[in-house]
Amino acid sequence: MSLNRLVLVINASYEPINICSARRALTLVLKGAAVVEEVSAFAIRTARLTIPLPSVIRLQRYRACRGRTTPSRARELSFGTAAPVNIARLKLPARELTLDHVVPRSRGGGSTWENLVASCCPCNNRKGDRTPQEARMPLTKQPRQIGIHAKHRLLAGDEKTWERYLFAERLSM
Questions:
Q1: Which CATH number belongs to the domain containing residue 79 in this structure?
Q2: Using one digit for the tens of pLDDT, what is the confidence trace for 35-91?
Q3: Contact (Cβ atoms closer than 8 angstroms) between residue 38 and residue 18
């Protein structure tokens, strides 16, 4: 469906900060929180209207987000590496994954990229309040933080229109 297409979100300063669904992007534009910078080839058609879907939107107000260190969904973790880091070593769809803390929160583990892995529900429950080593469920790879450029390579989006926003900071250096 067209509303599930991916849209690049850039800050008021034109730096890329997120990727969201076209549905969320349209909501931000209709609320007045963002403006459309680039339009995709897709559109929503109603009986009276044809609404082009955005490919890139820019927030109206600057949003400070330099220190974002927490993935908000298991989906972000699964896009973080070519194969999702998960305890069961299975490649599962993102909708079947949960977030699991390597060092449990009860032991001082934070919700950072380096302490979160994607896990299926049965493995998450089996691990419980233990570390993967204590539960005899060692990780295949250590989780690590990724940048927007790595997300871009792994996600299906309008790569041509995104390129000038994603790689602009590299060109200016």
A1: 1.10.30.50
A2: 999 999 889 999 999 999 999 999 999 888 655 544 545 445 444 433 334 455 566
A3: no
55 within some domain: yes
Whether residue 79 sits in one domain with residue 54: no
Phi-psi region of 14 (alpha: psi -120 to 50; beta: other; left: phi over 0): left
Amino acid, res. 119:
S
- DSSP string of 99-145, one letter each residue: EEESS-GGGT--SSGGGEEEEEHHHHHHHTTS-TTTTT---SS----
The boundaries of the domain holding residue 38 are 2-66+155-172
Whether residue 146 lies inside any domain: the answer is: no
Q: Say if residue 20 is in the same domain as residue 42.
A: yes
DSSP structure class, residue 32: T
Residues 88 and 115 both lie in one domain:
yes
- Number of structural domains in the chain: 2
Interior CA angle at 168 toward 165 and 172, to 5°? 160
Among 7-11, 74-78, 95-99, 164-168, where is mean pLDDT lowest? 74-78
Can you say how many angstroms the Cα of residue 92 is from the centroid of all Cα atoms in its chain?
16
